[in-house]
């Protein structure tokens, strides 16, 4: 294999979810494109990397100081949905059911990986809540031990503000799942989050 091809394959293989064979296919695909198309691709990636900013209000990706969601006056400013990553915002937005604001942490507390509360944008979240008008903070992050620790920490930071309701996403048995195959933790959450029919 050519050293130039190896270099490109190696770079593509560093992307999450891209293995060696997919990296090779992507690299060979670029060879079949015109030089102008490849330059356009490289230029788009470069402009993205150098030009992207983080929203000063919610830490979401943005082209300016405020992201489109925070700039939208039609959004419900009384609710903030806290997520781990920018991709989580996109997933929730795709449901077309949530109309409030977001707060992107950027990660979760993980002492094993050296990520502490100061490494996250929790102070920015607390400042936004203290600025007034927020009635509910929805903690929409995962179910790992690190996520649970992060949720506990955020809840403790907001405990002196009883006017702000702190909630989490409902958890439990997924649609189509069998109870006998669910773990005890999932069953416990399902029982605790049960609702009337």
Commentary on this structure:
The chain has helices at 3-13, 20-32, 35-51, 68-71, 86-94, 122-130, 145-158, 184-192; strands at 53-54, 61-62, 76-83, 100-104, 136-139, 165-168. It has two domains: 3-51, RecR Domain 1 (Helicase, Ruva Protein, domain 3), CATH 1.10.8; 76-176, 3-Layer(aba) Sandwich (Dna Topoisomerase Vi A Subunit, Chain: A, domain 2), CATH 3.40.1360.10. It is globular and about 60 Å long. By secondary structure, it is of the alpha/beta class. The chain is built from eight helices and six strands, in the order H-H-H-E-E-H-E-H-E-H-E-H-E-H. Helix 1 (3-13) packs across helix 2. Strand 3, helix 5 and strand 4 form a beta-alpha-beta unit. The longest helix is centred in the N-terminal third of the chain and has 17 residues, at 35-51.
């Amino acid at each position: 294999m050519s050293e130039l091809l190896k270099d490109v394959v190696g770079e593509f293989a560093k992307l999450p979810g891209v293995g060696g064979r997919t990296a090779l296919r992507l690299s060979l695909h670029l060879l079949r494109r015109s030089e102008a198309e490849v330059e356009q691709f490289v230029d788009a990636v470069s402009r993205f990397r150098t030009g992207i900013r983080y929203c000063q209000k919610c830490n979401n990706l943005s082209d300016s100081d405020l992201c489109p969601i925070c700039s939208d006056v039609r959004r419900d400013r009384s609710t903030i949905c806290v997520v781990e990553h920018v991709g989580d915002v996109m997933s929730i937005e795709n449901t077309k059911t949530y109309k409030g604001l977001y707060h992107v942490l950027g990660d979760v507390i993980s002492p094993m990986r050296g990520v502490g509360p100061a490494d996250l944008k929790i102070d920015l979240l607390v400042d936004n809540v203290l600025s007034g008008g927020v009635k509910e903070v929805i903690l929409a992050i995962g179910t790992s031990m690190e996520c649970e620790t992060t949720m506990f920490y955020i809840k403790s930071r907001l405990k002196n503000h009883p006017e702000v309701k702190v909630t989490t996403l409902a958890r439990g048995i997924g649609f189509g799942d069998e109870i006998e195959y669910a773990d005890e933790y999932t069953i416990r959450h399902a029982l605790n989050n049960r609702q009337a029919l």
